[in-house]
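quick one: DGJ bound model?
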Amino acid sequence: MIIQLRAAGTSLVLDARGPRPAVVLHWGPDLGALPESDLAALAGAAVPAVPPSSLDEPLRLSLLPTVDQGWTGRPALAGWGAPVADLRLREARQAGPREVRLEHANDFLRVTTEIELSEQGVLRVRHTLGCHGTETFHLTALDVLLPVPARAAELLDFSGLWAYERRPQRTPLGHGVWSRETRHGRPGHDDPYLLMAGTPGFGFRTGQVWAVHLAWSGDKRIWAERQALGYGLLGAGELLAPGEVSLAPGEQYTTPWTVAVYSGDGIDGLSARLHPWIRSRTAARLPRPVVLNTWEAVYFDHDPSTLDRLVDAAAAAGVERFVLDDGWFAGRTDDRRALGDWFVDERRYPQGLRPLIHRVHKQGMDFGLWVEPEMVNPDSALAREHPDWVLGGVDGPTWRHQRVLDLAHPGAYAYVRERLGALLTAYPIAFLKWDHNRDLLQPGATHRQTAALYRLLAGLRADFPELEIESCASGGARIDLGILELVDRVWTSDTNDPLERQRIQRWTGVLVPPEFLGGHLGAPTAHITGRTSALSFRFATALFGSAGIEWDLTTASEADLAAVAQWVGEYRRLRPLLHTGVVVRSDGDAHFVHGVVSTDRRRGIYALVALRAAGAALPEPIRFAGLDPGTRYTVRPLTIGPAPRVVQDAAPAWWQAGEVTLPGSVLAEVGLPAPLLTPEQAALVTVEAAPAGQRSSSGASASGGRSAPAR
Ligand code: DGJ
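yep, here:
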């Protein structure tokens, strides 16, 4: 059969007539509803020429290409113990309106492939391999490969470091493989994250883009390949160490889902499909509360009276959740000891956590607690009592003075499960910040460790359905769509420096919707970079996510505290928009604009961000993407607390007037002159559909005071 799946401007056409492995004839823009006759004609016409010095029959790029098919690129299936050859299509059926199930097999192996196209236009593909011979099959690779056309000639993926996650990197795709492999036992700070292939120069709102992501928190490989023969593809799969997955007869292995998206209108078009799809399936509970996290305020110095003052200051600012970070458990006085000993420290908390939680509740907030359940310090009662639970034994290299607890060990798993359950039962804990601060570095253990983690999280969620969990891994080293099915929030990065955060949030947000991305208001001087930033810049940055505070508010001035309270109020007012809307971004280097527009396109909020000095005295006008061209909108500056710093003898006329009303088409194409922000400043602007019948108003005709030149 030939199958066409269509949704949200995307379609996939699959030639599953057999007996050869099925072929994806098209993945990309919607082709319209093709009748069977057209699909058959397409399948027939798509058979390529036979080039010289090649196989004597046309070579197709199948869904499961292997060497015996003539495919000399990276194969989809590899291993030993049974022949990886002669796969034949045994069954193809449409399992739902946009779901297909295929079965390919030889005498020893059977691969079941599930393909789903969501109504939002997101494609998910995974394989299940069953061993049906008489010998054990040792799997080395089972990957999902999807074709991309020759015009997808430029790649964009990510690298990064601790506190500098998701640094984009672009490269042209020539002949060969651009392959990224991660062996951290977690995605890592340098996670390739989302591999995009697009028409050269594709941007946030321009170009055709095809992208893949692996929904998995362990090791992976993700790659793009273009063969001298001409075929191009994107591939993804779990990176398996030799012997990591061995299937005895009758056993099977299921790959993680590969999530694939096509957009005809740039990177924003990827987000426009991914965000609503993620929202439709995952658990982020709205509204996302304003958090105060104690880490950068007190580190390991858990002095009850300091914490009490912090609780009071948080409540006065309007915070809704108080999160006690690292340092609360037995003997944890620094990062060298006690991980694994998940009992409240009696010295610092002689009456347990109850008095602190009581104060938090009395102040109208709920309570969250930091844990790092997959880890153990050699200097801990746990490691001393159960050295056999330590992954790799007690002599392996430490990292942040810690080792990994072998969650695949039933005793270790049961201990962690019991400890977490006991804490969650003993105390009214609304939220766990679940940290993971080192690489695994145990070849062959990642698959089972990741599977055990997922089981642990799923079990806790089932037993404590009200509990919310945040995935943190030294900041943003474990952000993927596998874990996102099991948590409510991710800690985007350890840096609270707004300049770094602007870039990190911008790129992390291509895949993950803003309401999942923890972003905190840090101290005036960022602890990690030492850079001092204006309060308004910190406000404008932390607003666009799941907002919180990570600043010792007991040291803040009265004026700053009043501004913080105002900011919290604005966040609470705006979060229904920020956490359900469509994210839009402009390309830009020195300056960029990003925003969120409500799904009905009646309102939006935008930020103009000056990363550094503009290239021109008058920077590019602010263009408002994502609005309805035929609707008139009133645009107004939004100032929270101190105004951003500008150097201008007079502000743009519309800014002075305080508002302007214009059609969406004008705002998108002509835009509005930008205020002259100094570097590391951001200005906020709201947009609201004007009542029907309201005529355009022009800020240019307004009179207004000259804004104070800050020279
Ligand atoms: C690393 C996290 O990313 C930080 O936010 C903090 O929780 C520390 N660990 C605590 O040890």
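Residues 295, 325-326, 370, 435, 437, 472, 474-475, 491, 494 surround DGJ (CB under 6 Å).
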